[in-house]
Amino acid sequence: MSETSLIAILFGSFWLLLLLRVPLAFCLSLPTLLVIYLSDMPTQLLVERMYASLDYFPLLAIPFFILAGYLMNLGNITDRFINLAQALVGHIKGGLAQVNVVVSMMFASVSGTATADTAGMGSMLIPAMVKKGYSPGFSAAITAASSTMGAIIPPSVLMIVYGSLANLSMSKLFLAGVVPGILVGVSQMLIAYVVARKHDYPREARASAPEVVRAFRQCLLPLGIPVIIIGGIMAGIFTPTEAGVVAVAYAVLVIILLRSVSLRELPNIAKSASIMVSLPVFAIASAVAFGWMIAFLQVPNIVGEFIAQFELTQVTGLIFIFAIFLLIGCFLDGVPAIIIFLPIAQEIAATVGIDPMHMAIVIVMTAAMGLITPPFGLCILIAGSIAKVPVPQMIRASAPFVLAFIALIFLIIVFPQIALFLPQLLTT
Questions:
Q1: Torsion angle of alpha carbons 427, 242, 106, 396, nearest 10°?
Q2: Domain locations in the chain as residue ranges
Q3: Backbone φ, ψ for residue 22 (5° rounding)
Q4: For the chain, which terminus, N or C, has the lower number of CB atoms within 10 Å?
Q5: Count of Cβ atoms closer than 10 Å to residue 229 Cβ
Q6: Cα–Cα dist 90/66, whole Å
């Protein structure tokens, strides 16, 4: 069978299974298995590739950061972040919506994952917002949108995966995500303010200076995680994977010191966390196998030859890459999308001369935005289920946040120094 036919079968069966709502891991592994079989290769090759991917040291960071976020949620650390955010921004129009965004910014610096933020924040803030008079759709939408900062603000699991696969400096990549992550948060706070003015949503009472200090003291221990992780990686003390282990150990220490969880509960917590982590790990292993098949079929080279026919500039090349990941992000989670399609993006970047760090930020932001784009944006599905809001209503409520995201990505495409000036300071 020709290479072109195998490529068509690989992608065609993938999209078919995805549209049939088959679980993601099987959407990726079954087409790979089919092409292996049609290519007269031993079918056990799929298992070997999936197993080898789990033995890849940098990818071990993913379950550790997921576990750290899970422990923080379990240990009622979220309550402390909410208290601090309310003391800082609760008095602004649309107070609880502003708190929602600021809490997500804090939690992003701890967990590195967006879905943990959505589940943790949503279970508390969505009911609280609805009780205060906010619409369920807006409450769920801003919770889902703000949680995407967990994929951009360091330590970010998406950045760890990207940096490991693209062989980029993790410390520079983390620094490159700081300003874009903050801009995402600021844009969401502005949207919340406009919506609050339109619907006359309430503001909270202004906190006194002693209340702000008290709330900040309560968060000192949890906020130590980003200081230790980011500082340790930038100082070369440990790798991102080792940082994930440190994050888990520190999270356990924090919840014990704060007496949120007893030592007797830790075995059951570890068991629950293992089950929770197993699903994304299975999907990641399947994505690595699918990505290997794409490389085996020379898809990146074919795309590179196709792109070479056009006179693309760096800006138009990045817009093309953005369009690819925007489409893929509507159906795939960020980590599998990056594992599978990064080689294709790198081929395009090499063809038109795009800076690797610039492309990294554009792809990471686009993958993060995919968590709130229809039809399968994971964060809007989680938030919508918490708020009991149907998907069409979630899509309408999330539209302003998606548009703001797109505007910020285009701004960074045209003005790369927004993201790159901090990493460049590290080299001077």
A1: 100
A2: 3-427
A3: -70, 140
A4: C
A5: 26
A6: 29
* Tokens describing residue 409: 């990505």
The three-point CA angle 16-366-323 to 5° equals 60
Span 7-27, pLDDT tens digits: 899 989 998 988 888 888 888
At position 69, the amino acid (one-letter code) is G
For 207, which DSSP code? P
- pTM, two decimals, is 0.87
Query: Residue type for 156, please?
Result: S
Pick from 416, 402, 403, 423: nearest CA to 317: 416
| Residue 259, number of CB atoms within 10 A of its CB | 9
Quickly tell me which residue has 């795009």 as its tokens: 354
| Averaged pLDDT of the chain | 84
Question: Chain centroid to CA 377: how far?
Answer: 11
SS3 state of residue 62? helix
Query: DSSP characters for 233-282?
Result: HHTTSS-HHHHHHHHHHHHHHHHHHTTSS-GGGHHHHHHHHHHHHHHHHH
User: What would the pLDDT profile of 229-264 be if each residue is shown by its tens digit?
Assistant: 777 877 778 877 788 888 888 888 887 777 777 777
3-state secondary structure of 200: coil
**Which of 68, 115, 122 is CA-nearest to residue 255?**
68
Task: Say how far apart CA 426 and CA 428 lie, in whole Å.
Answer: 6
The count of other CB atoms within 10 Å of the CB of residue 35 is: 23
- Peptide bond just before 375 cis, omega within 30 deg: yes
Tokens 């970010």 belong to 156
